[in-house]
Specification:
Blueprint (H helix, E strand, L loop, with lengths): L4 H19 L2 H5 L5 H10 L3 E2 L6 E2 L7 E5 H6 L5 H5 L5 E5 L5 E5 L2 E3 L6 E5 L2 E2 L11 E8 L3 H4 L6 E7 L7 E9 L3 E13 L3 E12 L4 E2 L4 E2 L3 E15 L2 E14 L5 E3 L16 E16 L4 E18 L9 E3 L4 E13 L6 E13 L6 E5 L9 E25 L2 E18 L5 E20 L2 E12 L2 E2 L9 E2 L2 E14 L4 E13 L2 E8 L2 E8 L1 E14 L5 E19 L2 E2 L11 E12 L4 E12 L2 E2 L7 E2 L2 E12 L4 E8 L7 E5 L15 E5 L4 E9 L1
Parallel strand pairs: 7-10
Antiparallel strand pairs: 1-2, 3-9, 4-5, 5-6, 7-8, 9-10, 11-12, 11-46, 12-13, 13-16, 14-15, 16-17, 17-19, 18-45, 19-20, 20-21, 20-22, 21-24, 22-23, 23-25, 24-25, 25-26, 26-27, 27-28, 28-31, 29-30, 31-32, 32-35, 33-34, 35-36, 36-37, 36-38, 38-39, 39-42, 40-41, 42-43, 43-46, 44-45
Length: 707
């Protein structure tokens, strides 16, 4: 067996940083030439509280790789959606598809399209209907890397992305932001918090309205094909009937209107275009109604939490799926596809104050018609013989149910901590072909364990090692030529070692980790051309492995300046596998850059006793990676730079800001499907593939006000 150089480097790095952390004593740290104000600022930043393990803990005390963003970090970093978030995370590919669904791969685990891979959660409730919605009124955002199956179940095989919203407080306050810029961008968002009865009831309302004129021009229809409008609101009622009970009842509504399938046809991955010459005015209309009821009760010896949620999504499309000016193939829906999701979790957790802590719970979910294309009609255009309309080309209904029980127990002694958890997960999916009456189902049951060992050498240094298992349940295809054909579950075994801590009194915070992941029966979605009709199809390919190293650090040399950097090295290859009868053993896995990283500097300085200025610069690098399993097409390496300048009230009551994204106008793709279109008679291309091009340079200005 070959030695793995990346993993060796990682282990050496973890060991070196650990020794450095042990060597830097408080006395030596005090002797460093940094200001006391900067040390206090750094120390407070290190005390970010997260709930990755479903209990509140200091970020630096959690033996896992977690990236956390506060609300202020999201604003300064220009992070308004998952596309923006993806640029801030090493070893992560994260963006939105044309239909506004997320593509996400973490450490080579996960996949683009309808294979879930990574779980999205809003206030600990799984979100599978509007993961790419605008990020509004968040307290923080947490990204957990590696399988999270023990506490979060299936569909978190690569990790979890948690959105933690602001809950109502007993102080009256609010804020709003107006943003405008190129591409006819106009965004308005805000929130207001209203105490109803002090200490007993409070209400918080937040909302947003976004408009983007787009940047992909359709010369055939003389419109921008990616024009988008999105708006929504969220209300949360907080009740504290007594000192031991808290009730949070939230309701959200959103509507998105965009083009959906805004792809262009190309002969190769380096032939870019901002034109999408489609014959149809595509649309993708999505409406979300959802509610969460959270009830927490302090029982003295433990805390009981009940989380109930219901979400309904209505989605309707019209897509030109031949991707050319020819009036060949159009997919449409005569009525919206309605997705219904219900979840219920009940858990009991100790207060985490003693040497022994524990957590146990049960979980249930029901998902009706998850796929956006459960029902589709086709229009085959002028070349078709007879009636060009094929009604109910896709016409399937599905129901997925999940049952689970989970538990975790931890023990602390001195600086040592051991945690062991397990989850018993059962999934079943049933489907009916409404055209033929045919039925099929698939189910699986699995145990998902997790073990972590940690040593708290001091308040400023944590060393840890962990092993965990995650999985993505098997489901059913809905494609016309593969209707209700099942695909198997996929599993991942993850091993990780790391160190995190602080140096020089909190001025430097760091996190380093090394990992190895064996990924079995990997699910992969591809698009195939069936008689000129593009069909999405999911299958199991084989086994891959990923290993690598990650680092992140933040340095605060003065109270005004912070410099952050993060990076990840990744090796991800197929150990064995067959893709459309082709052996892919030894090929590099898709969406797995060898290196990705970012660096940013943030400087804020008072210019008078009432005003301060802010300057920020950031640079993200993504090395080349393959789009396809056979390794025929590659996205070349690219760098994205961004800058921000602001003028604000010294107490942050108001702020004017100017931001430029992709400052040097780098051209790159966010999706690429190789050779899924047959050669065009009209000469559209020689190698006919489809792709989505990334956001070009855009300048935006904003005004924010707090009251």
């Amino acid at each position: 067996m070959k030695h793995r150089p990346i993993l060796s480097i990682c282990l050496s790095t973890v060991a070196s940083v650990s020794i450095l952390g042990l060597a830097v004593t408080p006395a030596s740290a005090q002797g460093q030439p940094f200001s006391q104000d900067a040390q206090e600022e750094g120390r407070s930043a290190g005390d970010i509280v997260v709930t990755a393990r479903k209990r509140s803990e200091r970020l630096q005390d959690v033996p896992e790789t977690i990236t956390a963003f506060s609300a202020d970090m999201l604003t300064k970093g220009g992070i308004a959606n998952v596309d923006d978030l993806g640029r801030q995370l090493p070893n992560v590919i994260l963006n939105r598809r044309g239909d506004n669904e997320p593509n996400v791969v973490i450490r080579g685990i996960g996949a683009f399209g309808n294979t879930q891979g990574v779980g999205f959660y809003v206030d600990d409730v799984r979100n599978i209907t509007d993961q790419s919605a605008r990020l509004v009124d968040l307290e923080r955002l947490e990204v957990l890397k590696g399988p999270q199956g023990t506490l979060y179940g299936g569909s978190s095989i690569g990790g979890a992305i948690k959105f933690v919203t602001r809950k109502p407080s007993y102080e009256q306050e609010g804020h709003f932001t107006v943003e405008g810029g190129e591409q006819n961008i106009l965004n308005v968002l805000g929130s207001v918090n209203v105490p109803i009865v002090d200490g007993v009831a409070a209400l918080r309302i937040s909302g947003y309205a976004d408009h983007d004129g787009g940047y992909k021009y359709n010369p055939n229809l003389h419109v921008n094909s990616d024009k988008s409008t999105e708006y929504g609101f969220r209300t949360v009622l907080r009740l504290n009937p007594d000192d031991a009970t808290e009730v949070l009842a939230s309701f959200r509504y959103s509507r998105t209107e965009n083009a959906g399938n805004d792809y262009y046809v190309t002969s190769g991955p380096q032939e870019y275009s901002f034109e999408t010459p489609l014959s149809e005015r595509n649309y993708n209309h999505k409406q979300i109604l959802g509610g969460i009821l959270s009830v927490t009760r302090d029982l003295d010896f433990a805390t009981l939490t009940s989380l109930s949620s219901y979400t309904r999504r209505k989605n309707r499309i019209l897509w030109d799926i031949d991707y050319t000016p020819a009036d060949d193939v159009t997919a449409s829906q005569d009525a919206p596809v309605v997705t219904k999701v219900f979840t219920q979790e009940l858990r009991l957790a100790s207060d985490n104050s003693g040497s022994l802590n524990w957590l146990a719970g049960v979980y249930y979910s029901s998902i009706r018609d998850l796929d956006l294309l459960s029902h589709v009609d086709l229009y085959l255009g002028a070349p078709a013989a007879g009636d060009p309309t094929v009604a109910n080309y896709y016409n399937v209904t599905t129901l997925a149910r999940q049952y689970a029980g989970f538990a975790n127990i931890g023990w602390k002694s001195g600086g040592f901590e051991v945690n062991f958890g397990a989850r018993l997960d059962h999934n079943k999916v049933k489907g009916i072909d409404l055209n033929t009456g045919g039925k099929n189902d698939t189910s699986d049951t699995i145990v998902l364990p997790k073990l972590s060992l940690a040593y708290h050498a001091s308040r400023d240094l944590l060393l840890y090692a962990s092993a965990s298992k995650g999985y993505e349940p098997g489901r059913l295809n809905i494609a016309a030529d593969a209707v209700l054909i099942p695909f198997k579950r996929e599993t991942a075994n993850n091993f990780e070692v790391g160190a995190k801590g602080e140096l020089f009194g909190g001025l430097l915070q760091y996190d380093v980790a090394g990992f190895y992941i064996k990924y079995k029966d990997r699910q992969f979605e591809t698009r195939i051309n069936v008689d000129g009709i593009i069909t999405e199809f999911i299958t199991n390919i084989g086994t891959s492995e990923s290993y690598g190293a990650e680092f992140s650090g933040t340095l605060r040399p003065t109270r005004d300046l912070s410099i952050s950097a993060s990076g990840g090295f990744l090796h991800s290859k197929w150990k064995k596998g067959v893709f459309f009868e082709q052996d892919v053993t030894g090929n590099t896995a898709t969406n797995a850059p060898r290196f990705s990283g970012n660096i940013n500097a943030d400087y804020t300085h008072p210019v008078t006793d009432k005003l301060k200025v802010g300057l920020r610069g950031e640079l993200t690098h993504t090395s080349s990676f393959y789009w396809d399993v056979p390794n025929l097409t590659k996205q070349r390496a690219y760098d994205i730079a961004g800058f921000r300048i602001s003028l604000a009230d010294i107490d942050d009551k108001w702020e004017f800001a100017l931001r430029i994204d992709n400052a040097f106008n780098k051209v790159y793709n966010t999706e690429y499907q190789d050779q899924i279109l047959s050669d065009r008679v009209n000469g559209a291309c020689d190698r006919c593939s489809d792709a989505r091009i990334g956001q070009p340079r855009v300048i935006k200005g904003s005004f924010s006000y707090k009251f």
